[in-house]
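Please review the protein record below. Tell me whether the encoded fold seems credible here:
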Amino acid sequence: MNILDFVKKQRKIHGLTQADLAAKAGVGLRFIRELEQGKSTLRIDKVNQVLQLFGKTLGPVDWRPETEDSVKNGEEKE
């Protein structure tokens, strides 16, 4: 599940409008709309303000690209 789907789903589960969520998270309504519409560039600090309401945050993760060798060797993606 991507972030926009997660936020939208959690907002609806908690019975919040976009305006309610914006007020509770301390961000603007426009930001919530852009987040739920999948805007490709958003401030991570503001995304985290929203996610923290639902007990989640974004942070750095280790990433390594899937290589042809790892697929041939049957290694799982992390």
